[in-house]
Design goal:
single chain; 3 helices; elongated
Length: about 190
């Protein structure tokens, strides 16, 4: 099966969602958000789910019973051997149904998937939180002090320490925990 993203996903987080001293329209922050979202969203992602609204096209040797990367909003077009097929519908889980005889031949299905905030609800909060954490992780990796932390005990001593590996492992586990309920296995 060939899968192509025709219209890229709409970002599900904005620079304002990421804590820190940056502008609400910060281009670098928007780029980091797009990179983080690409790791998990749609065909390029690792949870087999569409998060941001996007248009996807799949090509298969025959018409499938279901299409991947749910939630599916609607079908844009269905073609079999280059001929448009009418009478095909889809539910949110990607299950296709056909009125009449199911045509045989190579199929190309174009559809819209992802959360649009109305028909199928808002983007899951845990997906948005995972993207914010991934962006914070990328920002911490490029911090000028390398993630050095310190604390002072008044009149006694001060201590500086650095534990970027531990922080990264902890954040990675948190991100995986946030995404686990969204992962699609079938």
């Amino acid at each position: 099966m060939r899968v192509v993203v025709i219209v890229p996903p709409v970002p599900i987080a904005t620079p304002q969602d990421v804590p820190g001293p940056h502008a609400g329209d910060d281009a670098m922050m928007a780029g980091l958000i797009a990179a983080a979202q690409a790791r998990i969203d749609g065909p390029t992602g690792n949870i087999n789910r569409a998060l941001g609204l996007q248009t996807i096209e799949i090509a298969t040797p025959c018409l499938p019973r279901s299409i991947p990367y749910r939630p599916v909003l609607d079908l844009v077009s269905v073609e079999v051997d280059g001929v448009t097929v009418d009478g095909v519908s889809v539910n949110r889980e990607g299950r296709l149904s056909y009125s009449g005889q199911m045509p045989h031949g190579a199929a190309v299905i174009r559809y819209r998937a992802g959360y649009d905030g109305s028909d199928n609800g808002p983007v899951p909060a845990n997906a948005k939180a995972a993207i914010v954490l991934m962006v914070q992780d990328m920002l911490a990796a490029q911090a000028p002090n390398g993630g050095l932390r310190s604390f002072d005990v008044d009149g006694a001593f001060s201590e500086a320490y650095n534990s970027p590996d531990q922080v990264q492992r902890s954040r990675g586990a948190t991100i995986e925990g946030l995404l686990a309920p969204l992962r699609v296995f079938a």
